[in-house]
Amino acid sequence: MTAPTAALRAPADARQVLRRCRELVRPTLVEAVDGLHPWVGEMAAYSFGWCEVGGIPAEASGGKGVRQALAVLGAEAAGAPGRAGVPAAVAVELVHAFSLLHDDIMDGDQVRRRRPTVWKAYGTGPAVLAGDALFALAVETLAFAPAGPGAVRQLSAALGDLVRGQADDLTFAARPWTGAERVRPEEYRAMAEGKTGALLGCAASLGALLGGAGPATVAALDRAGRHLGLAFQIVDDVLGIWGDPAVTGKPVHGDLRERKKTFPVLAALESGAPEGRRLAGLLEAEVGATERDEAPEVASASEPAELADLIEAAGGRAAASVEVGRHLAAVEEALADVLLEGPAVDELRSLLRFLARRDL
């Protein structure tokens, strides 16, 4: 899969933008986490990659800091200094960490960023407690920021969307692969906008809000972030099937082994192509075998490589590429709708393109 056009290739300084924003936000984020109960704070620091179990300092970076950067650039694009967006960056990063802690428990994921997840390292109950503490800290951080009440309302709305998206994602697993009750691509879009897009939109728009932007600018950045979230999630779906494990840190065909209903799979099933019908037949046959309580190797007999080939032949991978391009175009339209200021606008555009494209 390649970027929809050559123009979508990000400049080489996108990673520098991420680094600059992380360095601006990090001291305030660390200070906030240090205010937690020591044991809870250790789990939070572990989740960010700052320490190992027991509090021993770690070398891990703690991720790219995508949401932090969007908040800082949102403030700068509104004409304010980047530090005006730091409370938004901290709050959204805390909420993101909270959501990952709980997601890993719900999904049973044992590894994140090549380390045991928090629940695996500390236990399920402690991980839930750490997630709750991060959520409360995020609200407190915004409540004391300028424009705090409006910022808290905006964060709360994004959280509501995130919960709805996560609920949809969990219920998708129990729905059939074929028939009237199957998951449709449009349902997937709504799920991904909530689960992934809402918090990205919240980051950029909260930064703009704290930077003094008007309602139109705040709304436009929220739309841009939500479309970015959809593109970001679909790229993740593609990497989850065809990505290089050395780059993604995940096993090849990992999402297919778990039989996740990702966008390329759903698009292939909707295609009407013979390969799509073959794919549907294999997946439904596995469901039938599971319901008959047959051996696990019978219930999951289809090789992931075979399924990946069928998805690609049915147009699922190509449809994902088109979908990413469509949402990137929507990002540009949202940014063009309002007057934004300074070099941060170009940095914001390059960062959005880089995040949506990544290593495809």
What would you note in describing this structure?
The chain has 360 residues and is an all-alpha fold. It has one domain: Farnesyl Diphosphate Synthase. The protein has 17 helices and two strands. The chain has a two-stranded antiparallel ribbon. A hairpin with a 2-residue loop joins strand 1 and strand 2. Helix 4 runs antiparallel to helix 6. The N terminus is likely disordered.
CATH class: Mainly Alpha
Based on CA inertia axes, which overall geometry fits?
globular
Percent strand? under 5%
Number of helices in the DSSP assignment: 17
Question: What structural category do the secondary elements indicate?
Answer: mainly alpha
Kindly report the spatial arrangement of strands forming the biggest sheet: 1-2
Return Rg in Å. Answer: 21 Å
CATH topology, what is it called?
Farnesyl Diphosphate Synthase
Kindly give the count of domains.
1
The helix content, as a percent range, equals: over 70%
Q: What is the total tally of β strands?
A: 2
